[in-house]
Protein 1
Amino acid sequence: MAGRPDSPASHVRSLIVIAVVAAALVAAFAYTAGWLSPGRLTPAKIVDSLAPPGGPALGFRRNHAKGICFTGEFESNGAAAQLSKARMFAAGTYPVTGRFNLATPDAKASDAMARVRGLSLRIVMPDGSEWRSAMIDAPVFPVATPQAFFELQRALAHKDDPNAMKTFAAAHPEIGAFGKWAGSAPWTASYAEERYNSLNSFVFTNADGKDETVRWSFVPAATPENVSADDLKKRGADFLGADITQRVGSAPQRWSMVVTIANPGDPTADPSKAWGDDRRSVEAGMLVVKAIEAEPDGPCRDLNFDPTILPPGMRVSDDPFPAARSAAYSVSFNRRTAEDKDYPRTAAQGAK
Ligand code: HEM
């Protein structure tokens, strides 16, 4: 039988209920922060693992820290509407903000030292939806899972221990395909001559509700010219930025967006595995880069190219990377925006 609402027993019961709710809240916070499972990989730990020995470049992205911002358009030809009802695939022209970048946490890296180059895009559609993507020029990712990406950073951090990478590679043989590309693919002297690949897979849904799992690439209109790695080292630290500024200054630069559709049984959850070259593909339209924008204090500065920001008609697949990337990019974004006072206001300050 329940006691009277103002009886001592009822007060004790209320206090117990409050204590239980408070304890549950503390436990939930502790779980989210990883305090209950110190071995669990958290977004903060994965971002910490990217920092170079001297600590991160304050105010900068925690990876792909060096880059150059641009604006332009996506000219959709309408062909990919058969795959996705996303507004950007209806024939038309949509504004783009993007960024060419290098896969390094070092904001002052010499361009010739970064093997992997990236392209980040944000397309805003008239219905208010938007698409963000961050791609790289490697044909495969070095590792199969976010956990392995973390372990790779830890192995790379042990530069003085030749066994660290050997042990890692023995446990993660999938890194062989990336290693082969990194060691043998020709270098170019221009962001404009690179093909950029999503590597992660996503699900497209068309107006009839039909799903397809896809990856996409941006294929350059410019013909790649091979330049030796030694020649690139002689070109100064910032030749990529100078080259793309000069090219875009003389003519818009173009890439064709190619959407590749998985065959049944393709490894959709593993970006370290390529799909065969014979997969069906659809050319969706052209990225046209029209103007180079200031990197310090320009329109990319406060943009997080989170690969899970997708319009209706696209969604994440069984690939675990986009969710892990989203969480890590958010930590990086929060850290770098909190360090605003350390971020350069001008290109000259950025070069110091
Ligand atoms: C678990 C795996 C990964 C982690 C932890 C990671 C981490 C990061 C972080 C922390 C940033 C900086 C974000 C910001 O401050 O805005 C970044 C940027 C970037 N990442 Fe990743 N990344 C991962 C996988 C990938 C993959 C698979 C690709 C491409 C296929 C990729 C391409 C890029 C690019 C192009 C940027 C530059 C984005 C920009 O211009 O803001 N990353 N990454």
Note: Residues 44-351 form a domain with the Catalase HpII,  Chain A, domain 1 fold (CATH 2.40.180.10).
Protein 2
Amino acid sequence: MSRIVGIDLGTSTSEIAFLKDGKPFVIPNHLGEYITPSVVGLSDDGRVIVGKEARDQLLLKPDDTVIEVKRLMGMGGTVSMGGKEYTPQQISSFILSYLVDCAGKYLGEDINRAVITVPAYFSDTQRRATVEAGSLAGIKVERIINEPTAAALDYGLEHMWECQNILIYDLGGGTLDVTVLEMFEGVLDVKASSGNNQLGGKDFDQRLMDYLLNRFTTQYNVNVSEDKRALMRLKEAVEKCKIALSQQEEYHLLIPFFANAEGNPVSLEETVTRDTFEGLIKELIDSTEKQINTAFSDAHLNASDIDLILLVGGSTRIPYVQHFIEKTLGKAPQSLVDPDLAVVRGAAIQAAILNEQLTAEKDIIITDVCPYTLGISVLDYVGGFPITDAYDVIIPRNVTIPVVKEKIYGTVADNQTQVEINVYQGEFKKASHNNFLGKFLLKDIPPAPASQEKINVSFAYDVNGILQVEGQIVSLGKKANLIIETSGVEMVKEIDTEGWAKVPNARKFKAIIRKAERMLENEEVRYYALEVESLVRKIKTGLVQGEKLETLDEFKEELHEIIYELTEETDV
Ligand SMILES: Nc1ncnc2c1ncn2[C@@H]1O[C@H](COP(=O)(O)OP(=O)(O)OP(=O)(O)O)[C@@H](O)[C@H]1O
Ligand SMILES: [Mg+2]
């Protein structure tokens, strides 16, 4: 059997590594570089190119080049490259093929098995898409591991016999993960993970871009929002500016001949200070306090219990991020791992465990968690009234994996012959407010009075973070499985909700939103933080987008329930 390697398939950059003489070793690509841009393109002669070569043509051929495809994984869409549509899995498979090819040449052997890392907060669908990308590249994905867990492994291999609680704050190009874990006697025990799949360096770039475009438009009265090439040039320039501002207090940004104003070419020229940049991104970084708090409450730990903070991901080099962490946790983060390479090094360690180069007895063991709640929709009775679309939790978030949980349900109607099992992932009480993962039908239930026939639903969540669902008619032993489709997961899209309070219907919701926000601020919502936050956002977004009042009332009702529950609890 061939050797298993470790791969970090990142939003902005990707890497590949293996274990050499008991230590992780990052394998250089064909240019001799350890870090490969996650960029794919078509060359002039129609070849697929990956990495630096593709990145270099981005400005000249934006339509033939794809960047940041990871944020589209598992979302069901396609991307266009050279006039042809590709799935995000296909684009990712080109990156994987390239990495494996470079590694194969470097090691002088065929590589076709790998451990691939994903953000801890990646959904089931996104994980499946990652496995699919692997198989499209001809790679058997032997294990999917969470990026912060991988980073912890990298640290853990050298510090195995120390006893400490660690918080890993991983802010990369496109995702944020916060993970709390305990380390003792060679065991890395992940307690909780929380995160945001749509927050990272690319959003900081976007904020800076919007700011500069706004100023440019005001100054010259030209609109470049349709000019793909100008936007790409700006994107590249703002990233340079952002990175420079991690080292210096100000940066002079100049893009010559940026656009045409009244027939004359004009340049975009600005001096951006670190203060200005921090002002633009502060809100985004401050918002991650929520994920930190959620991770803490799920892990049943406080900031004061944390012995060590590790920063991972390129965006943690931003000084404001470091200040924010120190301010929020009351302790300075330490530079004990390489923020760019810790994840791939950890993936190589996991690969070595699978290769049996490292063993659980002598070396290291990890446990990981399922970061989301998983369940099904059921008919529930509250005070004698039927409530449809209730969410019944089967696997609560942050339980240690692998895990198998079962629950028994009864039929609802007399002589019911089939049930539809709808599977969701998320934290809401109403099933349909969560991410729908898939459904299946269990047929041929023997006719009987309501609730006499029993259905056993079992969820198995494996070490790759992939879910298998099974339903069984208990009296017959007949089973059906869920094949979860790999498309159609809805993700929360950020919408500007600033004007929500001015919408005619807003009055009805102001009081509860104010109350919820006050509770969030005062940290009175404990483990409901995500849910409360999300409901508030849903109401505001709904108001701005003219959503049906009925729907908004439902959200309000849910929020009300939580707030009621919390105040009840604290009153006791
Ligand atoms: N010195 C720096 N200061 C600020 N930002 C930086 C710096 N160096 C890199 N970055 C940013 O870090 C991001 C890339 O980080 P990294 O390579 O860790 O992400 P990734 O692994 O590709 O993404 P993800 O883990 O989210 O999928 C980019 O947005 C890049 O602009
Ligand atoms: Mg990363």
Note: The longest helix spans residues 549-571.
